[in-house]
Amino acid sequence: MPKSKKILLIEDDQDLAELYDEVLSAKYEVEIAHNGKEGLELATKKPDLILLDILLPSMNGFELLKAFKKDPQIKNIPVIVLTNLGSKHVDDDKKLALLLGAEDYLVKTYHQPQEILEKISVYLPT
Amino acid sequence: MDKIAIKNDQDYEISILRERISELEGLTERLRQSEERYRYFFETSPVGIYRTTPEGRILLCNQRLLDMLGYDSFEGIKDRDLEGDGSEPYYPRARFKQLLKIKGEAEILEAAWIKKDGSIIYVRENARAVKDKNGEIIYYEGRVEDITERKNLEQAKEDFISTAAHELRTPLTSLQGYLALLDKEHHGLADKEQAYINKLVKAAHRLHEIVEDLLSVIRLDHRPNVDLVAFQLEPVMEEAANEWRLKAKEERKSIILETQGDYVIQGEPEYTKKIISNLIGNAVKYTENGGTIRITNSRSADDNQPMVLVTVEDNGVGIAKEHHQDIFTKFFRAPNPLSVKAGGTGLGLYIVRQLVEIQHGRIWMESERGVGSKFSFTLPLLDKSRQLPLIQ
C-alpha cells in the first residue's frame, strides 16, 4: 500500500485548522503549523504539499512564501495559498501569490472543505 | 466743497472741475472700500483662488493657495507652471483643459497637485476661461479646495470595513465548513434536527452573501480596470437564469428566457452573470407567487456604438415613483411588504450598476407600483477590429 502523501497546513485559526485537518486526513497525512516560524521548521521535513494561509501572526504568508522559494530544500515543494484574502476575480493578492511561486490560490470562504480536498489532489498525484 | 464766489466764466469752469474731482474722489473711495471688502474674502477664503495665464503661469492668487502649496510668498509661486508640473502624473489635466477651452468652464472632482516640498495634496478644482472680444483666452481663474483630509477619512473608513469583512470570513468559513460536515455525515438525523441544520446553512449563506457584497462594494468603488474579453451572451444569461429556477419553481413563478441572436460581448463574463443573476433574483423576490419574470436580449437602438440591450421584466409589486431616482444607490431599499420577507443588504443594485458601468454599459429602470418593474442595461458588442481573447 503506497504511503500517504504528506500535507503541511499553515493556518493560525484553531477551528479552521481542525476543520481542514479532519477533512484532509481522510486521504493524506496532515501536519499543522500555527505561525510562520513553525511553518518554516516543519517545511524542512519535506512535505509533499504546503497549504499556506496569508493572514498569519507576525510573519505574513507572502513573506513565508518568499522564504520557501529561496530555500533550496523547500523551493520545489508545491505551495497552494489557502486564504480568506481575495475576491472572485483575479486581484492583486492572487497575482502576487502566483508571482511569488504559488501553484494556486484558493479563497477558503468560497469552497466547502470537500472541494478543497478535490482541488489539491491535482497537485498530489499518486 | 468751499463755496467760491463765481465772478466769471473761468471761475465757473473751475467750479465744475472741482465738482468732478470731488465726485471722482468719492468714487475712488467707494471703489477702495468695495475692494477692501472683497479683498478680505479673497485673502481669507478657505478655498485657494488663482488666476493664471493661458500657459499656466500664476498671475495672482490668495493666501490660501500659497499655504496649500507650501509657499511663503507670491515670489516663490509666480514662476510655477501649474499646467506642466502643477499636477501629479496620475491625474492628467488634459481633459480639464479641453473642457475649459471648449465650454469655457470645467471642474475636476479629484485631482492631485504637487506642493513645493514635492508632497501631494488632493484637490477639487473648478475654473473658467476669461476671453477677450475676439474669443481669445486672456487668463484662467479658478478655485481649488483641499480634499486630502476627506480622502484620508474615506480611505480609513474603507480600510476598516475591508478589515472587518475579512475578519468575518474566518468564523464564517468555520460555520459553513462544520455545517457541511454535519450535513454529510449524520444521515441518521431526525427530521427536526435536519431542518435545524438546513436553517443554519441558510443563515450562514446569507451572512456570506452580505460579507461578499460589502467587499464587492469597496472594491468596485475604486473602479478597478477589468480585463475585457469577448464572450457569448446567451450562455451567460442561461447560467444566471438557472441559478433561480429551483426557487422560482418552488414559489410557482415562471422565468422565461427570450434570447435572440448570437451576440458576442466585449466585457467581463462573471460580472455580466452577476448582473443578470442579481436582477432575476430581485424580480423573483418582488413578484408574488404565480408571477412571471421575462428576460430578453436584442440590439440596442439608440447608441453611438453597437450595444446589446438586456432586459429583466416582472409583473410583481413594482416600485413607487418617488423612489425611482434612489433605486441604484447604496443601501437603498424601497419600502414594501415583500422587502421584509425578501431580505437583502440594499447593496445589490448599487453593485449591479457598478458592474454595468465598469463594462462601459448603461442601466436604467421603469416601474409602476402594483404593475411590475423592468430593468434594462446595455453592454458593448464585440468590436471586430479589436483582438480579444475569446472565453468559452
TrEMBL record, chain A:
Under PANTHER family, the record lists: RESPONSE REGULATORY DOMAIN-CONTAINING PROTEIN, STRESS RESPONSE REGULATOR PROTEIN 1
Recorded hits in InterPro entries, A to Z, give: Bact_response_regulator, CheY-like_superfamily, Sig_transdc_resp-reg_receiver
User: Which species expresses this protein natively?
Assistant: Candidatus Doudnabacteria bacterium RIFCSPHIGHO2_01_FULL_46_14
Record protein name field: Response regulatory domain-containing protein
Pfam families from the UniProt entry: Response_reg
Could you tell me the keywords of this UniProt record? Answer: Phosphoprotein
- Keyword Transmembrane among UniProt keywords: no
Instruction: Give the lineage.
Output: Bacteria, Candidatus Doudnaibacteriota
Superkingdom, according to UniProt?
Answer: Bacteria
- The residue ranges crossing the membrane are none
Which part of the chain is the Response regulatory domain? 6-123
Q: Known SUPFAM superfamilies for this protein?
A: CheY-like
GO terms classed as biological process = phosphorelay signal transduction system
Q: Which residues, renumbered to this chain, carry the PTM 4-aspartylphosphate?
A: 53
By its UniProt entry, which Gene3D superfamilies does this protein fall under? 3.40.50.2300
TrEMBL record, chain B:
Residue intervals of the Histidine kinase domain: 163-383
Principal place of residence:
membrane
Q: Which reaction does it catalyse?
A: ATP + protein L-histidine = ADP + protein N-phospho-L-histidine
Q: Give the subcellular location.
A: Membrane
Q: Which GO terms describe its molecular function?
A: ATP binding; phosphorelay response regulator activity; phosphorelay sensor kinase activity; protein kinase activator activity
Q: Which PROSITE patterns match?
A: HIS_KIN, PAC, PAS
What are the annotated GO cellular component locations? membrane
Q: Cross-referenced NCBIfam families, in alphabetical order?
A: sensory_box
Q: What is this protein called?
A: histidine kinase
What phylogenetic lineage does the species belong to?
Answer: Bacteria, Candidatus Doudnaibacteriota
